[in-house]
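Next up, a specimen:

>
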Amino acid sequence: NPTAENVTIDLGQTFNDVTVILTNTLGQEVSKQELNTTPKFTISINDEAGIYFITVTSGNSALVRTKVLKQ
């Protein structure tokens, strides 16, 4: 799943109070977004090429954790 900059995530259903955290391989937080009632969203990776992790949570539940390669 290499990307040049943008990654679209489809949760398949609507969740309230969604938090999206982008981290690098060192575990450092690169960006954080707070979203309300959205089933689908796009996250931009504006940093240098490399491997990043996207974690999506709603309340105490982890909805998605995925690895992305930015070219």
